[in-house]
Amino acid sequence: MNPLSLPDPIAAYFAADQQKDAEAIARCFAAQAVVKDEGRTHSGIDAIKAWKAAASTKYTYTTEPFALQQSDGHQVVTSRVEGNFPGSPVDLRYRFRLERGLIASLEITV
Fold first, then answer.
1. Of the candidates 27, 16, 14, 20, which has an alpha carbon nearest to the alpha carbon of residue 79?
2. Cα separation values, 37 from 27, 40, 55, 66, 92, Å
3. Are 101 and 94 in contact (CB under 8 A)?
4. Which of 42, 41, 16 is nearest to 27 (CA)?
5. How far apart are CA 33 and CA 26, in angstroms?
6. Per CATH, which fold does 8-109 belong to?
């Protein structure tokens, strides 16, 4: 499989996620960024860092992005996520909006 050519902040997000590095993930986001995941909204760098740190300690998982499309000004990445969580494996859609080289918003859905 050919690797995807992801925009830099999105590639950095997935690389940091593989390393379970909440600090590195937070650096991918703009100061006022918003993440929506599992029915919850996380606003700002501190909340995003806490969200990712909690997910990384609660579950062991891997992500493998395999598709990228653009939709209404967003970059939508589909990724296979496998781990010790209910429903694994699952293909998740990561809907990113980028601003000035950073992630301004991210919504993760099935």
1. 14
2. 18, 5, 11, 20, 11
3. no
4. 16
5. 10
6. Nuclear Transport Factor 2; Chain: A, (3.10.450)
Q: Is 11 helix (H, G, I), strand (E, B) or coil?
A: helix
The distance in angstroms from the start CA to the end CA of the chain is 22
Locus of tokens 């992500």:
63
Total-model pTM:
0.93
Domain ranges of the chain: 8-109
Q: What is the pLDDT along the chain (110 residues), one digit of tens a residue?
A: 457 899 999 999 999 999 999 999 999 999 999 999 999 999 999 999 999 999 888 889 999 999 999 999 999 999 999 999 889 999 999 999 999 999 999 999 99
